[in-house]
UniProtKB/TrEMBL annotation:
Name of protein: Cation-translocating P-type ATPase
InterPro entries, alphabetized: ATPase_P-typ_cyto_dom_N, ATPase_P-typ_P_site, ATPase_P-typ_TM_dom_sf, ATPase_P-typ_transduc_dom_A_sf, ATPase_P-type_domA, Cation_Transport_ATPase_IB, HAD-like_sf, HAD_sf
Topology relative to the membrane: Multi-pass membrane protein
Pfam families according to UniProt: E1-E2_ATPase, Hydrolase
Domain called P-type ATPase A: residue spans: 123-222
Organism of origin: Arsenicicoccus bolidensis
Coiled-coil annotated spans: none
Keywords (A to Z) from UniProt: ATP-binding, Cell membrane, Membrane, Metal-binding, Nucleotide-binding, Translocase, Transmembrane, Transmembrane helix
PROSITE patterns (alphabetical): ATPASE_E1_E2
Length: 651
C-alpha cells in the first residue's frame, strides 16, 4: 500500500502529463507499425491527444469564463479540429508539444524563483532564549522583543537583534550577499536567518517574526517578482488583441480556401507562447539574482527604469564618505595654553551638545589622558553657529566666526579666521574655541572618503551612466576637492534638502533618467522626485527595505553599479526574447503561406522558441561579471588625528 502514497504526487508532477502522452504516442506507433493494428494505433493516439489536451482545454474554458482569450484556446480549437478531420497524429503532437512547453515554463519559473526559496529555507525553526535564568527552546515567532537569545557556533540566528555579550563571526550572505563572514562584538547588529560561524553570542531581540529583516526581504521579493514591468504590461495588452486576431485570420483563411488544415495550422503557429513568457521569465530571474546579491528591487517596472539610468546623484556624507567624523587638528592660538588644554575646553562645552560633530571632539578628549569630563552647568546651542556653555564658571564658545561675533569676541579672531580658512581648504571642518571672550584655539574634524568611492564612480561609467553628480551642503572649494578625489563629473555644493530636489529636477529636465542615492532622511525630497530612489546599507532599516525602489542591503558602494548592470542585463535579455518570439511567429506564418509548414512542425518550432527564451533568461541567474570586490574594507576608528586618512568637510 505504501507505493500508492506516491500517486497523488505523481499526478501533480509537472512532467506526468507529457510523460503519459508521450508513452501513448510511442505505443500508438508500435501498435500500428509493428503489430499492424491501426485501430489500437488510433486509440492510443487519441488517448495521447486527450491526456495532453485535457489540461489545455480546462485552462481555455477558465479563460473564457474570465473573458480572456488566450493561447490555450488556440491550441484547444486546433487539436479538437484536427481530431474531427481525422488528423490524429497532428492533434496528439500539438497537445504533447504544448504540454512539454508548459512544463518547461513552470519548471523554469520555479528555478528562477529559487532565490526566494533559498531565503525561506534559511529561516530558523528554533530559538534558544534565557527565561528565569534557564535556556528555553521556542519557535522564533514566540520570542519577545527585549529577551536574550543565545546563538551558538553553527546555529542560525532566529531574530534581529544587538549583541550584548560575546563575540563571533556571522555568515550574512542571505541578507547582504557578502560571502565573507562579518565579525560581531558588543553593540553590533545581527539579523535573522544569518549563521554563526564561530563564537558564542548573547543577543537582545529587537525584531521578531514578520518584523525581521529577513521577513521583509522575503515579502519584498514575493511582491517584486509578481509585479509587472511596463513592457510586460504592454505584451499582455498586445496578447489580448493578438490572440483573437489569429482566430479571425484562421477563420478568414478557411472561408477563403475551404482548407480546414490550413486554418488549424494558422491557429497553432500563431500561438504567442514565447512572446508571453519572454518578459516575466526575465523579470523573475533578474530580481532573483539581485536578491541573492543583496540587491532588492521593488518590481519589474523599477528594474526596467533602472536599465535606462543616465545620471546618478550621490549624497556625500555617509555615501561617498564613511559618515564617522574624527578629530584631525588642534591649533593653539593662545600661547599660554597647549593643545591638550584647548581640546579639553572644547570638549567640556561639547559634552552638552547634541550636534554630530561634538562626538569626535569628546571622544578625542577622553582618550587624551586627562581627567574625566563633567557636564557643563549650562549649555546653549546656537543653530548654524555652534554652542555656548558655562563650564566651572567660565564661558566657553565653540563654533564659527558668526558665533564669535554674536558673543562679542574680538581678541584673536583675525588669526583664528586665517587658520580656519587654511583648515577648510584642506577639507577640515574648523571650530573656533573661545574662553571668556578670548580665542584660545581651533579644533577641526573631518570625515574619510571611502576607499572604494573612486572605483564605484568608474564602474558606474562602465555600466553606462553618463553623469555622476555629487550633491552636498559643503562649500564649493571643499566639494571640488572631494570631486577630484573620487572622480565625479559634476558638483553641486552649498545645498539645502530642497535645493537637492531642484538639482534632481534640473537633471531630469536635461533628459536624464536620475537615480538618487541618499540616507532617506535629509535627502527625502530628492529621493521622492528622482526616477529611482536607492537606499544603501538597508539591512538595518526596515523602512528603507519597504519604501526604496532599490535597497542595497550591504553598505557597499560597489553594489550600486552592480545593480544598474543587472538591470541592463535583464532588459537586454527581455529584448532578445521578444525578438526571438516575433521572428519565430513571422517565419512560421510565412512558411504556412508559402507552404511546407505543417501543424506539427509549427508547434515543434514554437516550443523550440519557448525553450530558447527560457534558456536565455536563465543566463541571468549566473553572477554578474561586474561584481564588487570581496576584499574587506578597513573600518574607521575613533582615534584622533590619523595621518593616513583622507579627510573631507562634514558640514
Amino acid at each position: 500500500m505504501t507505493h500508492l502514497t506516491h500517486v497523488p504526487h505523481l499526478i501533480r508532477n509537472l512532467w506526468t502529463v507529457p510523460l503519459v502522452a508521450g508513452l501513448s504516442i510511442i505505443i500508438s506507433f508500435t501498435a500500428s507499425g509493428l503489430a499492424g493494428s491501426q485501430l489500437w494505433g488510433d486509440v492510443f493516439m487519441v488517448t495521447a491527444a486527450v491526456v495532453a489536451g485535457a489540461p489545455i482545454l480546462r485552462s481555455a474554458v477558465h479563460g473564457l469564463i474570465a473573458r480572456v482569450i488566450g493561447i490555450d484556446l488556440l491550441v484547444s480549437i486546433a487539436a479538437i479540429g484536427a481530431l474531427f478531420i481525422g488528423e490524429l497524429w497532428e492533434a496528439a503532437a500539438v497537445t504533447f508539444l504544448f504540454a512539454i512547453g508548459h512544463a518547461l515554463e513552470n519548471a523554469t519559473l520555479n528555478k528562477t524563483r529559487s532565490a526566494l526559496a533559498e531565503l525561506i529555507a534559511v529561516a530558523p525553526e528554533i530559538a534558544i532564549v534565557l527565561r528565569h535564568g534557564e535556556q528555553v527552546s521556542v519557535p522564533p515567532a514566540e520570542v519577545v522583543v527585549g529577551e536574550t537569545v543565545l546563538v551558538k557556533n553553527g546555529s542560525k540566528i532566529p531574530v534581529d537583534g544587538v549583541v550584548i555579550a560575546g563575540s563571533g563571526a556571522v555568515d550574512e550572505a542571505s541578507i547582504t550577499g557578502e560571502s565573507i563572514p562579518a565579525e560581531k562584538a558588543l553593540g553590533d547588529p545581527v539579523y535573522a536567518g544569518t549563521i554563526s560561524n564561530g563564537g558564542f553570542l548573547q543577543v537582545e531581540a529587537t525584531g521578531v517574526g514578520a518584523d525581521t529583516t529577513l521577513a521583509r526581504i522575503i515579502h519584498r521579493v514575493e511582491e517584486a517578482q509578481d509585479a509587472k514591468a511596463k513592457t510586460q504590461a504592454f505584451m499582455d495588452r498586445f496578447s489580448t488583441w493578438y490572440t483573437p486576431a489569429i482566430i479571425v485570420l484562421a477563420l478568414v483563411a478557411f472561408l477563403a480556401t475551404g482548407n480546414v488544415t490550413l486554418a488549424l495550422t494558422l491557429l497553432v503557429i500563431g500561438c504567442p507562447g514565447a512572446l508571453v513568457i519572454s518578459v516575466p521569465v526575465a523579470i523573475v530571474a533578474g530580481i532573483g539574482r539581485g536578491a541573492r546579491d543583496g540587491i532588492l528591487i521593488k518590481g519589474g517596472e523599477f528594474l526596467e527604469t533602472s536599465a535606462t539610468i543616465t545620471a546618478v546623484a550621490l549624497d556625500k556624507t555617509g555615501t561617498l564618505t564613511e559618515g564617522r567624523p574624527y578629530l584631525t587638528d588642534v591649533v593653539v592660538i593662545d600661547p599660554s595654553l597647549d593643545e591638550s588644554e584647548v581640546l579639553h575646553w572644547a570638549a567640556q562645552a561639547e559634552t552638552g551638545s547634541e550636534h554630530p560633530l561634538s562626538r569626535p571632539i569628546v571622544e578625542a578628549a577622553l582618550g587624551d589622558g586627562r581627567a574625566a569630563l563633567g557636564l557643563p552647568e549650562h549649555t546653549e546651542p546656537v543653530p548654524g553657529k555652534g554652542v555656548v556653555a558655562l563650564v566651572r564658571g567660565h564661558r566657553v564658545a565653540v563654533g564659527n566666526l558668526s558665533l564669535l561675533r554674536v558673543e562679542g569676541v574680538t581678541k584673536g579672531t583675525e588669526l583664528a579666521a586665517a587658520a580656519a580658512d587654511d583648515l577648510a581648504t584642506r577639507g577640515r571642518t574648523p571650530m573656533i574655541v573661545a574662553l571668556d571672550g578670548q580665542v584660545i584655539g581651533i579644533v577641526a574634524v573631518a570625515d574619510r572618503i571611502r576607499q572604494d568611492a573612486r572605483e564605484m564612480v568608474g564602474r558606474l561609467h562602465k555600466a553606462g551612466v553618463s553623469k555622476v553628480v555629487m550633491l552636498t551642503g559643503d562649500t564649493h572649494l571643499v566639494a571640488e576637492a572631494v570631486a577630484s578625489e573620487v572622480g565625479v563629473d559634476e558638483v553641486r555644493a552649498g545645498l539645502l534638502p530642497e535645493d537637492k530636489l531642484e538639482a534632481v529636477r534640473e537633471l531630469q529636465s536635461q533628459g536624464h533618467v536620475v537615480a538618487m542615492v541618499g540616507d532617506g532622511v535629509n535627502d527625502a525630497p530628492a529621493l521622492a522626485v528622482s526616477d529611482i530612489g536607492i537606499a544603501m546599507g538597508a539591512a538595518g532599516t526596515g523602512v528603507a527595505i519597504e519604501t526604496a525602489d532599490i535597497a542595497l542591503m550591504k553598505d557597499d558602494l560597489l553594489k550600486l553599479p552592480q545593480a544598474i548592470s543587472l538591470a541592463r542585463r535583464t532588459v537586454s535579455v527581455m529584448r532578445i526574447n521578444i525578438a526571438v518570439a516575433l521572428i519565430t511567429v513571422a517565419s512560421l506564418l510565412a512558411g504556412v503561406i508559402l507552404g511546407g509548414v505543417t501543424m506539427t512542425l509549427g508547434m515543434l518550432v514554437h516550443e523550440a522558441s519557448v525553450l530558447i527564451v527560457i534558456l536565455n533568461a536563465m543566463r541571468l541567474l549566473r553572477p554578474s561579471r561586474l561584481s564588487p570586490s570581496t576584499q574587506p574594507v578597513a573600518s574607521p576608528t575613533s582615534r584622533a588625528r590619523e595621518p593616513e586618512a583622507r579627510p573631507v568637510n562634514v558640514a
